[in-house]
Design a protein that fits this description.
- The protein is α+β, with helices and mostly antiparallel strands.
- Helices cover 37% and strands 35% of the residues.
- It is built from two helices and three strands; from the N terminus they run E-H-E-E-H.
- Strands 1-3-2 form a three-stranded antiparallel beta sheet.
- Strand 2 and strand 3 form a beta hairpin.
- The radius of gyration is 13 Å and the shape is globular.
- The N and C termini lie far apart (27 Å).
- 4% of the residues are buried.
C-alpha cells in the first residue's frame, strides 16, 4: 500500500470554506482510487492535514484519473 500525508496552510478565515470543499472532494477521490484515511485541523496554525492511500499502489495513475473526472 502506498500512502501520502499532505499538510496545507489555509489562509486565515478560510478554513470553514476549505473543509466544505474538501468534503465534496472525498467521493471524487474515491472514484479515482484514492482513499482518504484521516484528516485533521490545527486551528492555531491554520493547517489542514490528511492521509491518503492509493488503492492500486499507483499514485500517478490515481492522480491522473482524478484530474480526468468530469467534475
Amino acid at each position: 500500500m502506498l500512502g501520502q500525508v499532505r499538510i496545507y496552510t489555509i489562509n486565515e478565515g478560510q478554513m470553514e470554506g476549505w473543509l466544505e470543499q474538501f468534503d465534496q472532494l472525498v467521493p471524487m477521490f474515491a472514484r479515482a482510487g484514492i482513499t482518504v484515511r484521516a484528516s485533521w485541523v490545527e486551528l492555531e496554525e491554520n493547517r489542514f492535514g490528511w492521509l491518503r492511500t492509493f488503492d492500486d499502489g499507483d499514485m500517478e495513475g490515481s492522480r491522473k484519473r482524478f484530474s480526468e473526472l468530469p467534475e
